[in-house]
Amino acid sequence: TADKIEQWVEKVSNQFGKEYMFTF
């Protein structure tokens, strides 16, 4: 399941931008 979550985070980070990753 971790793999799926990682892909989801990557998708979201691409949409929201790198700023989202820093807040996450």
Walk me through this protein's architecture.
The protein is mainly alpha-helical and 24 residues long. The protein is 88% helix and 0% strand. The protein has two helices and no strands. The N and C termini lie far apart (19 Å). The mean pLDDT is 75.
Describe this protein with a few key phrases.
24 residues; mainly alpha; 88% helix; 0% strand; elongated
Distance between the termini: 19 Å
Shape: elongated
Mean pLDDT level: 75
Report the sheet-strand fraction: under 5%
pLDDT < 50 runs, ≥5 residues: none
**Counted beta strands:** 0
Global Rg: 9 Å
Protein name: Transposase
Short description:
This protein is mainly α and 24 residues long. The chain has helices at residues 2-16, 18-23.
Describe the secondary structure blueprint for this structure.
Blueprint: H1 2-16, H2 18-23
